[in-house]
Predict the 3D structure of the following.
Amino acid sequence: MKLITIGSSFSLVASALAIDVRAGCRGTEVIARDIAVIGGGATGTYAAINLKDQGKSVVVVEQRGSLGGHTSTYHDPATGTPINYGVQLHHDDQIARDFYSRLNVTASQASFPDTRIPLYIDFTDGSPVLNYSIPPLSDDYIQALHKYPYLENGIELPDPVPEELLLTWPEYMERFNLTGDAFATYSMPAVPGDLTKYLALYVFNYLNSGMLEEEREGKIIMNADGDLAELYRNALAELGSDVLLNSVVLHGQRGSKPADGVKLCVLTPKGRKQIVAKQLVFAAPAELENLEPLSPDEREKNIMSEFKGGFYFTGIVTNFGLPTNYSYTNRGQNTESHIASVPGVAMFNPTNVEGTYYYWYNSLSDMTRGQVEADTRNTIKRLQRTVAGADVSAEPKFLEYKSHSPLHRTASADVIRKGIYRDVYSLQGYRNTWYTGSLLVVGSSQLWNLTSQLLPRIIAASEQ
Ligand SMILES: Cc1cc2nc3c(=O)[nH]c(=O)nc-3n(C[C@H](O)[C@H](O)[C@H](O)COP(=O)(O)OP(=O)(O)OC[C@H]3O[C@@H](n4cnc5c(N)ncnc54)[C@H](O)[C@@H]3O)c2cc1C
Ligand SMILES: *[C@@H]1O[C@H](CO)[C@@H](O)[C@H](O)[C@H]1NC(C)=O
Ligand SMILES: *[C@@H]1O[C@H](CO)[C@@H](O)[C@H](O)[C@H]1NC(C)=O
Ligand SMILES: *[C@@H]1O[C@H](CO)[C@@H](O)[C@H](O)[C@H]1NC(C)=O
Ligand SMILES: *[C@@H]1O[C@H](CO)[C@@H](O)[C@H](O)[C@H]1NC(C)=O
Ligand SMILES: *[C@@H]1O[C@H](CO)[C@@H](O)[C@H](O)[C@H]1NC(C)=O
């Protein structure tokens, strides 16, 4: 298990009671709804609000204690200042603006987060990486991107899949003379794992036109008061008892025809409940592990088992002890294109609270909070010894932590060549189940767009 603690313990309970559970949900309270949504992150919340607005009854099953998924906002207890340490911003488009206004959040044009003066340091030894800077993406990159419009709003690949998209990114850059874009592309935020192993397909899918509009034209919005989690708090208030927090599906049945609907047995803090719904929106990370309680058949298993997410953790630390006029970004002194070594802290960014930083941590395998914070602390102590003006006696204090694993689910070149993405699209609606969530695009706004395009089909199926 590589989910957060609460999810793991619930799942352990689920497997320990697997036999008992089937009988155990009988006779419990029945929640009858048109649509059940599993996962209350960016896409699950969007689906629930919009389905409700279109006259459908919904229920959301979310394993954590709040909606929002990768969106995490901490409030400084002394000043109330919001600190977003997960999702930072949204693409400025009508879909995002409509969602903000639906949830009474005032959208304001924003710029990329304040990173002050960037210092590039090899965090493994604290030495500065000299003469390093990140040039903007070249026009050659943009021309290459325009060759693949089908990667902009999803992964709708032609058949056969262009072989060049299945090269690793270093191979692609080499082949197409884009090595000048190495620093810019390797600076994609919040990408887990070893960047040199990423396929070109995923780089273009991520660093797409929308992302370029954000970087080049500043097409970015965020909550005017800086608190991104407000969207999800307001959504929770709006959905009320239609959201089951700290809850997981123990087991479920999904019929093969729309009329057969979906039945879920859910473990909530108030005990077990049954959900009886017409259709199911699967908005948790689409990995086999999360699908398991729904008894996936061979077809679903074969597809979902090909996707693997990466490991990524974030947190907030105060008593940082380093000059607060900088951001600190990890780069390798002697690595390929100065990529930061993994596992390790990717960066420390300043916040509006003096001396308090948020950090992102990249890993190749799962880690506990204790492991992440111990390594982050050692990294800070190392930087305190090498950065001029640091206070070496400052003892870092950790305020917040979140696991974002499994992040960015990807498949291998071989299975993509064989048509895994065609298979994923073909799964939509199969066994009354609809997949949204970040399997096909990365940014929240794009995910909302993809979700909104799926809603008419989900509604139609629920009315059959
Ligand atoms: C550190 C970080 C920063 C990012 N910054 C940005 C940004 O600035 N702008 C941007 O547009 N995008 C950003 N992203 C990308 C982000 O992933 C997407 O924008 C979006 O939040 C993904 O939404 P989602 O619904 O697919 O997944 P999530 O938001 O992760 O939602 C999935 C939900 O399902 C729940 N869940 C998981 N398993 C289960 C289960 N078995 N049962 C029930 N519930 C379950 C989870 O708790 C979670 O709430 C960032 C990602 C990370 C990790
Ligand atoms: C938005 O504000 C209106 C007016 O105050 C209120 O009726 C409504 O419930 C709010 N909706 C949300 C989602 O906060
Ligand atoms: C960095 O740039 C300066 C000035 O251009 C140059 O003198 C120095 O040798 C460079 N250092 C490295 C490590 O490349
Ligand atoms: C890449 O650059 C080399 C040398 O400048 C040139 O010979 C080659 O044709 C270029 N390749 C492509 C695909 O543009
Ligand atoms: C940042 O702060 C440190 C310590 O206060 C100081 O030594 C350094 O000159 C400052 N740097 C800049 C660019 O202002
Ligand atoms: C939403 O996606 C469609 C394609 O699926 C695209 O044509 C449209 O431009 C997207 N809208 C936004 C606001 O990105």
Summary: The radius of gyration is 22 Å.
